[in-house]
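pasting for the record
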Amino acid sequence: MAKIALGIGSNIDREENIRSGIEELGKCMKGLRLSPVYESPAYGFDGFPFLNLVAWGDTDQSLSAMIDLLRNVEYRHGRERNASKFSSRQLDIDILLFDDNVGTFHGVTLPRAEIMEQAYVLKPLADVAGQVTHPVLGKTFAELWLAYSGDTRQVWQSEFQLERPLVTDE
């Protein structure tokens, strides 16, 4: 089993797509833990605000298989295959961490740089895996959030919260 952290976001039919995406992830992850849901403005383009959260858990899938599986979940939720990086999303799922892997694997760079660049990634990661150590920086995600020098006003806890339990065995 590998530990995996996923950043999940949506700014189109946000609540419906987040709920549906989490249900699909529950089929390929064990001990699924979910951070609170946060809201943040769209970055790099004009669009509705995003809902963001982090899912943390275990998977028996390989990294390559998870990359394919997550892309297919996004496509089933209406993501266009050639969508611009800075565009609205029904569902966006990014692998943030996969065990302690460091480097680029199948086109995915781990740990994902956005962890240290965006409050909407680091804050929920610190909430759900605060005592886990960043595989490059050697500090816990809770420590990294406390020291974060970016604009923390650009992320706030959403009124929308998932009704599903924080920890699942599914």
